[in-house]
């Protein structure tokens, strides 16, 4: 009896690799043709009239670019450096709690950290309406 030489049984991967390569090329080309997803946001311009922003607020707190805070309440006004804000905190909180309407007017050139410092102080006012307005 004659025996045939034993061959290992296996699957030829050449065809499979060709198909995978073609699929990979197709995927790469189709991803490059796909437009990028992004949100095309066109935010509206904010046009507030002076009456809406509080032209005559009960308490005006103005922060200037040279780190000065200007308080105007009624007929009285006061100016002090931003470094003294903690010393004037009690007075400021009493005024804004009493007046209930506060307008924080901030110069465009003010450092953001200074703005946040004043805003954090004014946030402690209980029940006061706080409006923020930028000035030139």
TrEMBL record:
Q: Which InterPro entries match?
A: ExbD
Q: Which GO terms describe its biological process?
A: protein transport
Q: Does the keyword Transmembrane apply?
A: yes
Q: What is its main location?
A: membrane
Which keywords appear in this protein's UniProt record, sorted alphabetically? Cell membrane, Membrane, Protein transport, Transmembrane, Transmembrane helix, Transport
Per the record, GO CC terms? plasma membrane
UniProt similarity note: Belongs to the ExbD/TolR family.
Question: Which parts of the chain span the membrane according to its record?
Answer: 12-33
Which terms does the record give in the GO molecular function aspect?
A: transmembrane transporter activity
Q: Kindly name one Pfam family recorded for this protein.
A: ExbD
Output this protein's name. Biopolymer transport protein ExbD/TolR
| Membrane association type | Single-pass membrane protein; Single-pass type II membrane protein
Q: Where is this chain's protein located in or outside the cell? A: Cell membrane
């Amino acid at each position: 009896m004659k025996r045939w030489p034993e061959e290992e049984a296996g699957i030829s991967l050449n065809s499979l690799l060709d198909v995978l390569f073609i699929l990979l090329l197709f995927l790469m080309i189709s991803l490059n043709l796909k437009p990028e997803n992004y949100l095309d946001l066109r935010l509206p311009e904010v046009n507030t009239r002076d009456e809406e922003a509080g032209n005559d607020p009960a308490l005006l707190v103005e922060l200037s670019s040279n780190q000065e805070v200007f308080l105007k309440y009624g007929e009285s006004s006061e100016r002090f450096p931003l470094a003294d804000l903690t010393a004037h905190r009690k007075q400021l909180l009493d005024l804004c709690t009493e007046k209930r309407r506060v307008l924080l007017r901030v110069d465009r050139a003010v450092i953001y950290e200074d703005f946040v410092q004043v805003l954090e102080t004014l946030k402690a006012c209980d029940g006061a309406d706080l409006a923020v307005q930028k000035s030139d």
